[in-house]
Amino acid sequence: VKSANMSKTSFKQDKYKNNLKLATWNVQGLLKTGKLENVLNEIKNLKADICGISETFWNESNDFYSVLPSGEKFRIINSNAVKSRKGVAFVLNHKMANSVSSVHLTSERVMAIKINTNPVNTFIIQVYAPNLDSPVDEKIKFYEEVRETLKYKTFQEVLVIMGDFNAKVGSSRIDNIVGPHGLGTINDAGRDLVNFCDEYNLFICNTWFYQKQSARYTWNGPNGVVK
Q1: How, if at all, do strands 2-3 and 202-203 pair?
Q2: What is the value of pTM for the model shown?
Q3: Residue 112 pairs with which residues in a beta bridge?
Q4: Three-state secondary structure along 156-224?
Q5: CB within 8 A of 133, min separation 6: which ones?
Q6: Helix, strand, or coil here: 37?
Q7: Which Pfam family is one of those matched by this entry (predicted)?
């Protein structure tokens, strides 16, 4: 999800003058031995500058470095989880590690970092939304936490909100929010997301460019039907 008034030139890193490549991934836990190394290797292969992580399962918030056997160094900033569930994080490659000007740990579902980019700074929020079966008050609390985090963003900064929204926004265009390349039929969580985007003048990026059907969903249920 991005601000509707952003431009491509907003994603220039001030020191290296390169395009900034962002990714997000629900890793379903980082507690198993070797899991973090596997994730970092995939981020390296993707050549992502910053990757937002959902479901770390790490109980304590932290800011640390991890080095792969091949020598690549990553900075990892994470919020706390609750009873080894939930938890969000950012992984930054060596180029971006020192570009973070502020960190905002809102909850086990929402956190943000502010990045020094050229010509204006970039404010990135990583989220892990409640699933469809979660209580209504938990879903309301989630969006309240995102709104609270947005208070740290200034008007001039580029805004990116990414992560696992546990939502389906459908394949039909909705104003300037949802493009024609979404998936399936919109569900209740998708309506909540669309309403939130409308409130803040945001658009859902991955619905605005063509992808093959198998690349349009981020989770596939055990039966292969629910996506």
Answers
A1: antiparallel
A2: 0.89
A3: 104, 125
A4: CCEEEEEEECCCCCECCCECCCECCCCECCCCHHHHHHHHHHHHHCEECHHHCCCCCHHHCCCCCCCCC
A5: none
A6: helix
A7: Exo_endo_phos
Render 50-90 in DSSP notation, one character per residue.
Answer: EEEEE----SS-EEEEEE-TTS-EEEEEE---BTTB--EEE
Q: What is the CATH number of the domain that holds 151?
A: 3.60.10.10
How far apart are the C-alpha atoms of 122 and 102, rounded to whole Å? 11
**pLDDT tens, 134-159?**
999 999 999 999 999 999 999 999 99
Domain count, the chain: 1
Specify whether the backbone of 49 is left (phi greater than 0), alpha (psi in -120 to 50) or beta: alpha
With respect to residue 57, please indicate whether it lies within any of the assigned structural domains: yes
Interatomic CA distance for residues 23 and 65, integer angstroms:
19
223: in domain? no
